[in-house]
Amino acid sequence: xxxVSQSPSNKVTEKGKDVELRCDPISGHTALYWxxxxxxxxxEFLIYFQGNSAPDKSGLPSDRFSAERTGESxxxxxxxxxxxxxxxxxxxASSLVETGLREQYFGPGTRLTVT
Amino acid sequence: AQSVAQPEDQxxxxxxxxxxxxxxxxxxxxxxxxxxxxxxxRGLQFLLKYITGDNLVKGSYGFEAEFNKSQTSFHLKxxxxxxxxxxxxxxxxRDTWGxxxxxxxxxGNQVVVIP
Lengths: 115, 115
What we know:
Chain A is 0% helix and 48% strand. Chain A has 115 residues and is mainly beta.
């Protein structure tokens, strides 16, 4: 079946512009995660959605970052007034009902470059 | 808070030799442990997980990992490495204590299998 998809695959933007990144999780997966992968820094947790519960936003690095999810489907990550340090690969993952036992399935990522 | 350490940035191994990628973790309760692999320009792929039970866990592509509670380790192993195993490997842990839904990833290990 279809995996997690993300768009765009690459995004180049000027400093100060807003960007919106999209994630389509695997159908039926109620849990959705956003991570940021910077060179040599591993994966940094950003935000977590689980069904209709309030999202865990504790990983968002600043108030320029926000994310939404429509029900149990598409999610968008928005970065306002982008800065050069926002340049990274943004990864989305989804999993079945979140009990901590289930592995996460990752999308291919969006490579964001802020010039 | 949970954390993972992957002490080596890069692991070089000759094709056909045993491969070991090290991981140690820190949690307050009991750990759920995962290994993921990332091939160039691809998203992360799940390899294996430890939840409970047998300390030796077998996963995809001939990989296995051993959970060692006394040493708080979860090293990834493969008896005979292939050139195609060259990739970035991430260890991850989730703490069962405190209702935390977050998965903490290590910085990753670059594995280079030399023909």
